[in-house]
Design brief:
This protein is α/β, with parallel strands linked by helices. It has two domains: 149 residues, Rossmann fold (3-Layer(aba) Sandwich), CATH 3.40.50.720; 231 residues, Rossmann fold (3-Layer(aba) Sandwich). The protein contains 16 helices and 14 strands. Helix 1 packs across helix 3, helix 5 runs parallel beside helix 6 and helix 13 packs across helix 14. The longest helix is centred in the middle third of the chain and has 32 residues. The N and C termini lie far apart (58 Å). Bound molecules: uridine-5'-diphosphate-glucuronic acid. The site of uridine-5'-diphosphate-glucuronic acid (UGA) has 20 residues, from helix 10.
């Protein structure tokens, strides 16, 4: 099948290259000429394990084409995925859809045969209806169908999530025509056991937001229970195991940690609350999740300050600053609140991240240093804050690195057993476990 992805960002690129790997001819379109030229040379604009190899393999096999020629790509494809960015709008509470509607207008003028237009970008409830109206301006409704097919890829695990999803959701108001085509596109995934769910188009749009809001709620719940555990000397990991073993609750997304971040949960929870508010529905639970998560970075900051006991000469080293491991993405990372907070309180901070120095921190140059390897960071620090859960942070020999000097560790991801530091010159704090601040 010939398909095209408009927008070669995270979603477009990962999905496009994997559909090409299944044997389709995929046009990955982007208006950014430099990005397209880089992709043709095998240079990937994002960090995603395994993606580069797949891009190079399928580009060499001529199954994926990178292009700025939007019109040609539309005309040659039967299925057109809209995967352009939907950033938060200026007030931060809803998604900016101008990119999506611009693309819809161009598609509208270039429908030369029956086409399925699919929204892959996360778009608010009712966006499919608006796209349909734009397409109807120039075309009879028999020439196209607009479908919602939300993605559930996690950054850092996107390739596995694409190949082995729990479910594929197709939202369509014309299932008889659309479903056989979409089913054949997704056959390699369905055949491996993924559920194939067909729902009304607006339901699919809402499934995406409700999924992310539910996961954000689950994380916020365990973070709040971790606060309670800290006051009662109970281990949050035992609680997560105890409740997660109930199949009705499920064990995933119950890892207590810093505030959740990334390009999705913060943005999507706010957009969902806004959508509901416009319809006079108060999503008080999700609103409180947003508030609780916003407060969490201040809570972690105050814990660090308490550990430091106002000793301004203490050197603080951060291990990882991205919003989670296996990504170079800094969007809404809790480090963006905690590190400036420490600097404001007069501390010098350094950091190491497996994905390198972060430009967003350049403004703090005099008080924030990037150290390009883990051992030096640990050696030079009095307090190490483990901020993300990269594998290389999971078995650090702190005792050997510090050569019997004092060290404090604040492990925000509970990567170590607190007992392993008993009777050592290392003081160890973590989240929601005994021996805490
Ligand atoms: C999330 C969803 O998991 C994907 O299904 C969805 O497709 C994606 O948003 C999206 O809408 O595009 P992502 O933002 O890549 O994926 O990252 P997650 O792995 O979900 O983590 C989000 C945040 O929650 C991170 O800050 C992470 O550290 C935190 N988290 C996650 C926890 O604190 N505890 C957990 O148990 C799990």
């Amino acid at each position: 099948m010939n398909i095209c992805f408009i927008g070669s960002g995270y979603v477009g690129l990962v999905s496009g290259v994997l559909f090409s790997d299944f044997g389709n001819l995929v046009y990955c379109v982007d208006k950014d000429k430099k990005k397209i030229a880089n992709l043709e040379n095998g240079k990937i604009p994002i960090y995603e394990p395994g993606l580069e190899e797949l891009v190079i393999k399928n580009f060499k096999a001529k199954k994926i084409k990178f292009t700025t020629d939007l019109i040609k790509s539309i005309r040659q494809s039967q299925i057109i995925f809209i995967a352009v960015g939907t950033p938060s709008s200026k007030d931060g509470s809803s998604a900016d859809l101008s990119g999506v509607f611009n693309v819809a207008r161009i598609i509208s003028k270039n429908i030369n045969s029956y086409k399925i237009i699919v929204t892959k970008s996360t778009v608010p409830l009712g966006t499919g209806d608006k796209i349909e109206s734009i397409l109807k301006l120039n075309n009879s409704s028999k020439k196209f169908d607009v479908v919602s097919n939300p993605e559930f890829l996690r950054e850092g695990d996107a390739i596995r999530d694409f190949r082995f999803p729990d479910r594929v959701v197709i939202g369509t108001n014309n299932p008889d025509k659309v479903i056989p085509i979409m089913k054949s596109l997704y056959a390699p995934i369905i055949n491996k056991g993924a559920k194939f769910l067909v729902v009304e188009r607006r339901a699919a749009e809402l499934i995406k937001y409700a999924s992310n809001a539910f996961l954000a709620t689950k994380i916020t719940f365990i973070n709040e229970i971790a606060n309670l555990c800290e006051k009662t000397s109970i281990n949050i990991d035992d609680i997560a195991l105890g409740i997660g073993s109930d199949a009705r609750i499920g064990s995933r997304f119950l890892r207590a940690g810093p505030a959740y971040g990334g390009s999705c949960f913060p943005k999507d929870t706010k957009a969902l609350v806004k959508t509901a508010r416009n319809l006079n529905i108060d999503l008080s639970l999700v609103s409180n999740v947003i508030k609780s998560n916003d407060k969490r970075s201040s809570l972690i900051l105050s814990k660090i300050l308490k550990i430091l006991k106002n000793k301004k000469n203490q050197k603080i080293g951060f291990l990882g600053v991205t919003f989670k491991a296996n990504t170079d993405d800094m969007r809404d990372s809790s480090s963006l609140k905690i590190i400036p907070g420490l600097i404001k309180n007069g501390y010098n901070v350094s950091y190491y991240d497996p994905t390198g120095k972060k430009d967003i921190f350049n403004q703090y140059n005099s008080s924030l240093e990037y150290i390009d390897n883990l051992s030096d960071l640990v050696t030079k620090s009095d307090l190490v804050v483990i901020h993300t859960e990269w594998d290389e942070f999971k078995s650090i020999n702190f005792i050997e690195l510090k050569k019997n000097k004092k060290l404090i560790i604040f492990d925000l991801r509970n990567l170590y057993d607190p007992k392993s530091f008993l009777n050592k010159k290392i003081k160890y704090f973590s989240i929601g476990r005994p021996f805490n601040v």
